[in-house]
């Protein structure tokens, strides 16, 4: 089967400023993403995992390599690759409903259809009753739910998530993971999800990719063979704990490397 | 030994509990008004504001009614009210007010429209910034009042010259401030809109403009305040109507009270427009102010 997204020897160097040497952030990464896969990328901070995601989104220029979506090479950002940022990406002057319709409006969709879709996604992320609230009236977790709904409403080929729960408190974070899992089980959207949280990476994913400390390479590609639907009880399941043990070791080595630098 | 220390520790901790009345009193005595950024009650705030006006009026009255100061230099408050009344009834002062207000608004609105467009483009596109920004920063430091003789030479002493002074005095500040405001729009918003399928101009229209709108209105409020000062300078030089014209004429005829009444009128007009704009801004952008 043809992968949905193909990343071929992708490399990114940031030009060093003022006599500083160039920084190699992403080093010849090869990756195939199949349709309906939920992939999490686990890496220590500063390993270039966000850079990788931003290049796939088209928000950052690559230095070399190729990225194909449906066998078409990608250039620049587009609505076929939806993105959820860590925080503060909602349009503060638009209410929940209008935020979710933003991409649909860009597609020049008629208002009636737009409203229907927005209503469906508001329902999906459990924000019924908050349609007319402005972002600043919502909690951080609710704001991220709107951001997820906004990205999904556009029906992208692949959903890119850049530590979307990283700014949330732990309890909210756990609930948001369950919500996202529930959304994925319903929509089977292809997801590429960045995190530095080991439990999060296992709980959500079909496949966990571990990245090395800078320069970012793929160190391990670990399929998570745990069936869906998953519930939070899974987090104390022996299989889960096994993955956790394995991944904790892998990520610890990389974090130590960063510390020693 | 150990016991003794622990006992002392407990005694110290417990002392406020032993005498609750005293510790409460201590708390009440904390002087909020001397605390940096401490809040005060609304009543105290209003009272202090009123007192400052009352004090100024009292000082003024004390100096004038007692005859300490010659009325030629500073007339008494009642004299000023009298001459203001006379200005309205006998000298058609309302016509001068309208002439001034009209000039300010014509020049200011023209400057605002053009300034916002240019400011948005400068803040958004580096090429536009590189072309305009250095030039504008340079012109901005040239005092508009110094241009008045030149403007008169170019287009005479009519209304359009006054409008041009306001326009010239306001537009460069508006452009630069709007450009800065546009630069503060979070890049996450731009990136989010690109991943939602926006085109570059779509981002300008549906993200950058609405995101910076409250800031632009605040800039408008600020610059409008300055525009009131430019208009008087323009009207002082060569004018046959307007508040500035009344002021300079009164000086020629030694009508000090008219001068002061003219100045007060401008102050009040400025205050009113500022309040109205402030209210409009709060109403227009509920997402930006308050909850």
Overall 3D shape of chain A: globular
State the helicity of chain A in percent bands: 25-40%
Q: How many strands, which pairing sense, and closed or not: the largest β-sheet of chain B?
A: none
Judged by helices, strands and strand pairing, the structural class of chain B is mainly alpha
- Secondary-structure element string of chain A: EEEHEEEHHHEHEHEEH
Radius of gyration of chain B: 28 Å
- What is the residue-mean pLDDT of chain B, rounded to a whole number? 87
Number of strands of chain B: 0
**CATH topology name of the largest domain in chain B:** MetI-like fold
Tally the structural domains of chain B. 2
CATH superfamily of the largest domain in chain B: MetI-like
The main pleated sheet of chain A reads as: 6 strands, mixed
Count of helices of chain B? Answer: 12
Uncertain stretches of 5 or more adjacent residues of chain B: 1-22
The end-to-end distance of chain A, rounded to whole angstroms, is: 42 Å
Percent range for β-strand residues of chain B: under 5%
Structural class of chain A: alpha/beta
Strand order across the biggest sheet of chain A? 6-7-8-3-9-10
Mean pLDDT of chain A: 94
Specify the helix fraction band of chain B: over 70%
